[in-house]
Amino acid sequence: MGKGGGCVPSKQKGPKPSSTQDSHRPLPQVEPTDDTPATDAVSEIPIQANLKLFIVFYSMYGHVEGLALRMKRGVDSVEGVEAVLYRVPETLSDDVLAQMRAPPKDDSIPEIASAAHLTQADGFLFGFPTRYGCMAAQMKAFFDSTGQLWREQKLAGKPAGFFVSTGTQGGGQETTAWTAITQLAHHGMLYVPIGYTFGAGMFKMDSLRGGSAYGAGVFAGDGTRQPTEIELALAEHQGKYMAAVLKKLAQI
After folding, report:
1. Which residues pair with 124 in a beta bridge?
2. Segment Disordered: which positions (predicted)?
3. Buried-most residue among 69, 85, 175, 235 (CB within 10 A)?
4. pTM surpassing 0.90?
């Protein structure tokens, strides 16, 4: 330390930079290889979730449920589409159901939580038995609970179809479906009938068969008759057909 408290610079000097050009030379660029993770690109790739097709039904004696289970098989056979089964709430008391000799419900199929849950689906298949040519009161009560969805048009543009059960040949295989179209119309939904896409099966006359161009169907008779294989096959076809339509609409 010199006079006045100043510092005496050291005679040792640090390494001199080679040149100004070298000090500003850019770092070498590393080309990505197959093993280099492209983190930005990965984060931008959207995860494609399966389309959800809700099969929502009411079944007192199990006939509609039988169609619904087979319908799910058809939906699930189409890649990229997943069927989810739901019951609508029962409106009759246990005492009344016991007097009508209705069997207990299958607990493995959940009851739909509320009408608002419908917004989570991309499409629908609604199933119900007939009551004098129209849908059963339990299903109608569920549709009546969709008022807020109707007000906001939350279901507008979503496709939907029907499948039914009747007691007799003249009991409403067609009218039960087409009288239900009003529910879809007010919601702005797209009604998807199956037409005659089932092919030769639609023209079989050698045995009793439910179903029509409006959708799959079953004859319940006095309640003891169970769905035949041709009726179940039509239900499976409708599920597969509806899933294919849903995929096409999703690509628009």
Report:
1. 54, 160
2. 1-41
3. 235
4. no
Chain length of the chain: 252
Q: Give the per-residue pLDDT at 3.
A: 46
Whether the pLDDT of residue 44 is over 90: the answer is: no
Q: How far is CA 172 from CA 122, 177, 178, 250, in A?
A: 28, 8, 10, 33
Q: What distance in Å separates the CA atoms of residue 230 and residue 211, rounded to the nearest whole number?
A: 10
Task: Report the C-alpha gap between 110 and 25 in whole angstroms.
Answer: 68
Q: Where are the alpha helices (DSSP H) in the chain?
A: 20-23, 39-44, 63-76, 94-99, 137-144, 147-152, 175-178, 181-187, 229-250
**β 51-57/81-87 pair status:** parallel
Q: Which alpha helices (H) appear in 164-209, and where do they start and end?
A: 175-178, 181-187
Buried b (16+ CB within 10 A) or exposed e, 18-46: eeeeeeeeeeeeeeeeeeeeeeeeeeeee
CA distance 68 to 217: 10
